[in-house]
Please model this.
Amino acid sequence: MNHINKIEHIGIAVKDIDTANDVYQKLLGVPPYKKEAVESEAVITSFFKVGDSKIELLASTHEEGPIAKFIAKKGEGIHHIAFDVDNIVQELDRLENEGFQLINTTPKKGADHKLVAFVHPKTTHGVLVELCQNIVS
Model:
């Protein structure tokens, strides 16, 4: 049984979503396929798809949001790597049993029709890891 299926996307923290969309559209040669606000995380997201890979741009909707704090501390750049999983609850249990520190012990609704949860970067060599499971309609 696979625990992690693939890299779902790479999240990039940006100051201005529209400026970043222009840059990544030129870089990747395709427009974003979706722009979405995620109020629980205080972000606006924009997604690009190139082949089987996806890039998520994240801009904060207010100065106290997690992305604004990240940018203030580290600057714009790679924020997280997300992995696709079939069963996010089982995967969270497995990772916790393996000794990983979870930021979310319960999945929550994220962008792009996903349930999401995060693993603390203290236990993954400085990389914020997101687990994503498709929400079945």
Q: What stands out?
A: The chain is about 25% helix and 40% strand. The mean pLDDT is 95. Helices lie at 17-28, 66-74, 88-97.
